[in-house]
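Entry 14. Structure prediction run on the chain below.
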Amino acid sequence: MGETIDHTLSPGCRTLLVPPGSTLDILTHAKTAFERDVLPFFLSRSRWFPERSEVDISTEVIGFAPLSSESAMRPCLVLFTARGRGSSGLYSIPVRIVWDEFEPQAANSKTIAKLQQDSKHGTLIDAAAEPAFIRRLIADLRRASILRHGDREVRFNPTSRLQHIDNRPIENVRSVDGEQSNSTSLVDNRYVVKIYRRLEDGVSPEVEVGRFLTDVANFANTPALLGSVDVTRGETTSAVAVIHEFVENRGDAWTVLAAALDRVMETRSSAGSEPAGAAETELGACQKLIAALGTRLAQMHAALARHDEFADFRPVPVSADHRRHWIDDILVRAGRVFDRLTGEPFDQATVALTQALLAHRGALRSTLEALLAPATNLLNIRHHGDFHLGQVLVVNDDVFIIDFEGEPRRSLAERRMKAPAARDVAGLIRSIDYAAGAALQRAVIPHRDDPQEIPRRLEQWRDESVETFITSYFAAMKDARLWPTPENEIRQLLRFFLIEKAFYEIEYEIGHRPEWLTLPLSGALRAFGA
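Output returned:
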């Protein structure tokens, strides 16, 4: 049978005509039509892929790999490069073939293509959150399987903690809504399985840090890493999946705090006066949560810096080269930001903030150098790298820190770099500011009341919360190498990393959410002392 594709059998789904054989045989046979016609259409409607226009997507399949030790129609990994307008990268999709009578109306977001094999019909599906695939993945992780196809290997790497997880049959698999760049599933309240969509050659910081915190540091306030899956070819290795232990929780700290702030602001709007006792109690609970955040972050930093015998986690002194690298990195990003701010049409309030920020352009280097100057005898450590309220699970009255991938717009090498603990502290401070700003955007401010009353209260909450967080971090940080005294020097260092983070945020918001731009602009100005 020749390699063909039929566009007429189902208007919303491409149809491949394929010969008999295994999944790998079928995919290899259909490679050209798959990359030319099937993948661009599927990617254009996949939320984890950045391009929405099918005609602007081009793909090239670079290989396939088995994803199960079972031989019969086993799941496989499709590896391909994809290009859109201004973006390109290496991606993967775990796929599985289901042979049955295909109904066009049954096509959904995981349907990649319809298959026709003589009189036999089937479906090629994206298996990332599919129960049969997840069961096989966990089974091979427990076996520590190594699967080979051609010059590629798929390695399943369990940690010591996996043997402590009940091995009863898996019953429920539920995909997590809202994921953008990856696909995550909750499995029987025992496992959290994350499938990486975009692949990078090298050691995944999420896997590396998770394994260290689980197997070496025994840090209790992060979900235990149970294992990972890598695909290798020659000297290159990319993480395909990571599996953590499920931790029962109330949601992430961003969601929990946002709900609490909304309830308090609603009380103020309706009453037009000081909030009732229940609202004050809720605000007190918020401060307890933020204090727990400071405590657990300090303990995590100490745990990451405690084992000098591991070179990748050994603290190293901050050098003049490190300082130059950080300053140059900010200056390059700030240059792009300043150019965008002078060329974009903004509303009056945003223009006023941009003009105030642009006033710091000429003295930016000297300002940054002055902020770093007092930081003597400071250590760089492995750290979270993208610490914000969404990276924290609220577990009863405590918190668990998750997701060690690092800032998604930085390279993998950058995300593995060591830095002062103050970088994570600054990230959470910026996140608290965002929480207050987002609550103000959602708040209903009645005309009969003082229109500045709610903004003032949210600013007060932000300032109190930042101070609570820093104070609790100070109190819990027992390693003087990571958080040196006097306190004014470390606060200078915090201002440096607050500026770094604010410019990162400004660049993102200009391109993606200009209506949010006032938040990082205001944050940058506060960090400058304006």
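Confidence is low (pLDDT under 50) at residues 1-11.
Filed with the rest of this week's runs.
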